[in-house]
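Need tokens for this chain, all 241 residues.
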Amino acid sequence: MNSVKIKDRKHLAFPETGMPVDNPMSSPERVLDAITRGVLTGRYVPGQKLIEADLTQALGVSRGPVREALKRLDAEGVVTLTPHRGAYIRLLTRREVLDLEIVLESLTALIARLAAEAVASDMSGKRKRLMREWLDFFATARASTPELFERRRQFYDLLIEVGNNTQLQSVMPTKRVHLIRLQTQQYFGPDDMEKRLAEYVAIAKAVIAGNPQAAERAMRRHMKRNIETTMAMPPEAFAPD
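Here are the structure tokens for all 241 residues:
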């Protein structure tokens, strides 16, 4: 595992989180929020060590809130706490990635189905217009598009928003899904990413058409190929079992 210190402490300062200084978040929540944002933006990568002293100085908190936040993230499967070694951003084993992808196959298929049903019942066409914007992006993007990594994450958020189910956001393991992407993206070549773009286009088209069955099938095909890709990756892509 890599022991990487925070390169830019200013980035983690409380005002830099984009939240007002008088926000009522507790100190542990502030730390949790900063680390979560770091994971979602790729500032922290799987296997990277989190230095308590850096976090306390950057966020202006004591070690107590930092340790509490790290324990919460450990319980969520985002951070690994190791006695006498400290805290690391979680590096998943192949089995853990596959198990999560199996769960995601059913969960994301439901997300796609609900989004298509919502589009079909939306007389104003607002949801369809939202989806068309993303269809246009995926249809014209290339594997080298700089913002593609972030847009992929946002695409699932959009499907959940369009589907308008009050519980999906809370059960979607967004942070762990992002860890998988960060951990494995270097093993994807341009051809693989082009195939993924085509799959996103197929999902978006089915949702826009208001076809729940087609949306679910397109999502399952995408997730099954993710599983096949994970199985074919070299051992060094994962933590030891």
